[in-house]
């Protein structure tokens, strides 16, 4: 079984400050981890993924995420937030050890960046 | 490059009417295809997925059905809509053996 938790429904941050959106996961095999962003009334856009290798993954729009195996976390980060980063963010996990290729999505975290 | 199309973008239908939502993918062959529904509470619910023509797997029992008549075409249907079918419907694709999904722009369905 696989699951993912996004413990915060909403994250508020001032423009120019660093941001973190949290994600923890549970999977029996090797975790494949993903972050997506959704702007209002739009489809989800892929941001970045961790499959293997370096624990720090860099993605689109200046976002990065750090894979922490001991804490089973994959938090999304950005050094300096922009108002245009305000959106809904989804974390997803998939068991990469030969199980289903269907990912499990978190419930999403609404990021609000204040000017 | 690959693109994914969904139509219509918005749909208002009365209870009991039929439904047909279409999704097509360009620029790739033999994609895995998915239908999701996103309710107002924001979570994504996987409805159907397909690994090939005519191969459909259903995740949730309901009055919806899906078909894949061509390699890059995925259709979501209903014979009689319910109020609870209202939501934002998203089609997605992924490359077989690859990892991330790519989503279409979505269809906003309101059942009245």
Notes on the protein architecture:
The complex is a heterodimer of chains A (115) and B (112). In chain A, strands 2, 5, 6, 10, 11 and 12 form a six-stranded mixed beta sheet that branches. Helices cover 0% and strands 54% of the residues of chain A. With 115 residues, chain A is mainly β. Chain B is an all-beta fold and 112 residues long. Helix content of chain B is 0%, strand content 58%. Chain B has no helices and eleven strands. In chain B, the strands form two sheets. In chain B, strands 2, 4, 5, 6, 9, 10 and 11 form a seven-stranded mixed beta sheet that branches. Chain B has a four-stranded antiparallel beta sheet with strand order 1-3-8-7, with no helix packed on it. Chain B starts with a strand and ends with a strand.
Strand and helix map with partners:
The complex is a heterodimer of chains A (115) and B (112).
Chain A: E1 2-5, E2 10-14, E3 19-21, E4 24-27, E5 31-38, E6 44-50, E7 56-58, E8 64-68, E9 73-78, E10 87-95, E11 104-105, E12 109-114
Parallel strand pairs in A: 2-12
Antiparallel strand pairs in A: 1-4, 3-9, 5-6, 5-10, 7-8, 8-9, 10-11, 10-12
Chain B: E1 3-7, E2 10-13, E3 19-26, E4 32-38, E5 44-52, E6 55-58, E7 64-70, E8 73-78, E9 87-94, E10 102-103, E11 107-111
Parallel strand pairs in B: 2-11
Antiparallel strand pairs in B: 1-3, 3-8, 4-5, 4-9, 5-6, 7-8, 9-10, 9-11
């Amino acid at each position: 079984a696989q699951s993912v938790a996004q413990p915060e429904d909403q994250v508020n941050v001032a423009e120019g400050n660093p941001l973190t959106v949290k994600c923890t996961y549970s999977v029996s095999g090797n975790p494949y981890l993903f972050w997506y962003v959704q702007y209002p009334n739009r489809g989800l856009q892929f941001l970045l993924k961790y499959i293997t290798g370096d624990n720090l993954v860099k993605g689109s729009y200046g976002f990065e995420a750090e894979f922490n195996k001991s804490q089973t976390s994959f938090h999304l980060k950005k050094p300096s937030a922009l108002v245009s980063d305000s959106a809904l963010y989804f974390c997803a996990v998939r068991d990469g050890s030969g199980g289903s290729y269907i990912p499990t999505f978190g419930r999403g975290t609404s990021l609000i960046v204040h000017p | 490059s690959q693109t994914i199309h969904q139509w219509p973008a918005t749909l208002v239908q009365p209870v009991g009417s039929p439904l047909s939502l279409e999704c097509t993918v360009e620029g790739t062959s033999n994609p895995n295809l998915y239908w999701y529904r996103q309710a107002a509470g924001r979570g994504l619910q996987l409805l159907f997925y397909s690994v090939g023509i005519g191969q459909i797997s259903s995740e949730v029992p309901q009055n919806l059905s899906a078909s894949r008549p061509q390699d890059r075409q995925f259709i979501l249907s209903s014979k009689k809509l319910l109020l609870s079918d209202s939501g934002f419907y998203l089609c997605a694709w992924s490359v077989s053996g690859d990892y991330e999904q790519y989503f279409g722009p979505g269809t906003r369905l309101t059942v009245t």
